[in-house]
Amino acid sequence: MASDRPGLSAGAAAPAELRARLEAAGVHTLLVQFADVHGSAKGKLVPLAHLGQVLQEGAGFAGPSIWGTALPRTGPRSEYYARGDASTAQALPWWPGVARIVGDGHVAGQPFDACPRQVLHRARARLADRGWHVQLGIEPEFFLLRRASDGRWLPADDHDRLAKPSYDLQSLPRRASFLHALHAALAGCGLDVLQLDHEDAHGQYEVNFAHAEALASCDALMLFKLAAQALAEREGMVFSMMPKPFAGQPGSGMHFHVSLWEGGRCLFDGAGADGLAPLARGFVAGVLAHAPALCALAAPTVNSYKRLAARNSITGTTWAPATIAHGPNNRTALVRTLPGRFEWRLPDASANPYLAAAALVAAGLDGIDRALDPGPATEDDLFELEAAERARRGLAALPRTLDAALDALAADDVVCAALGPTLAAEFLRLKRAECADYACHVGAWELERYVTAF
Ligand code: GLU
Ligand code: MG
Predict the structure, then answer these.
(1) For residue 285, what is the enclosing H or E element?
(2) pTM for the complete prediction?
């Protein structure tokens, strides 16, 4: 339950000390890394000799070349600087001589409002004004794939074929060298890796590491993506955070375990009769009330809705939520409540963690401030409950498409305000274009179904 950044002391070390620490670790180059609006890692290599500049001004990038910045091509605002956060500097075990340092977006010398990490800084500042912080345990599920000679994407392991593949101990040992290397890489960066397992689809795995303060958790998730991608490639596999690569199988969620803290005291401890502490009631109510808009950020691709919409899979279930509800240890609900925390089951592996976390905080604070009611806890298996019965109980469904989720986001002032006007507009513009592109696409399913049907 560490609240500090994993493996690192809080606060920026003085450059000389930091440089000496990195040199002692054999580092000669910095990987200055930031996340674009899609949550993809971006950056450049900078010799360690320029650490001072990375910390003071930042590494420079052409702003319009980065998704989601909406920066102009010319003039002082065309330059995007990723200013290194010294507390994140960490030698990368799988890339000798290189240390990652996470950058905060700056433009014209000021924090850049549309940088996803800056968006999360603003959400954390709102919490800090009340003496609070949020801890997140982010649980990435992912696929290890290969591309067949005919272009099809397949699980990397041809023998990974169990009818119910969760916790498969036949396939897991065949991936041992990758999983051990991943564990070693993350542990070497100070993350407390809790477990690694085979998930419920062929070629699907999950890694869990200890929860931490929201920013540290999001930075850790980006580190995980960097490590998993590099290490999978070394073994001839493709690491994928696509939410739903195989229609008949479960998709990849990226659940967030959420708790609210005041210093060392968890404010979600001490449940009332409905299983929720007073502040957890309000927070969860806000997350449910804003669920349609949050969907756009937590499930941000057209493919995401194939994970959320599907009721069944070859394994018997998908474990992905479809109903806006909460319940004690209820994995069929959007919010699964647990002692001292809740699990937000909406996010999938394609979500930008910084944006999803910031939107989550905005929704939760709105629920607390307006004393919203989360409604009764449900213990039912919501995958089995008939639509009419769900409607009778007032349990709404999540948006069924990205377009519908974007409509909800555009109409949600609380979530848009958390993103800020530049990023909200740019996110909506890019994602509307993605929907329009998809709408014009004719896929294999349609051809099979309609070519000879009429
Ligand atoms: N893969 C499921 C999802 O898409 C989650 C499975 C689990 O509960 O771990 O959310
Ligand atoms: Mg899982």
Answers:
(1) helix 278-289
(2) 0.96
Find the helix or strand (DSSP H, E) in which 125 lies: helix 116-128
Backbone angles phi, psi at 338, to 5 degrees: -140, 160
State how far the Cα of 44 lies from the Cα of 441, in Å rounded to an integer. 34
Give the pLDDT confidence of 95-130 residue by residue, as tens digits. Answer: 999 999 999 999 999 999 999 999 999 999 999 999
Q: Which atom of ligand 1 is nearest to the CA of 250?
A: 1
Give me the residues near ligand 2 (ion), CB cutoff below 5 Å. Answer: 206
Cα Rg of the chain (Å, integer): 22
Residue 294 DSSP one-character state = H
Give the per-residue pLDDT at 272: 77
Q: Give the pLDDT confidence of 354-381 residue by residue, as tens digits.
A: 999 999 999 999 999 999 999 999 999 9
DSSP symbol at 295: H
Q: Is 272 helix (H, G, I), strand (E, B) or coil?
A: coil
Give the other-Cβ count within 10 Å of 280's Cβ: 31
Residue in 143, 194, 200 to alter for ligand 1 test, most ligand atoms within 8 A of Cβ: 200
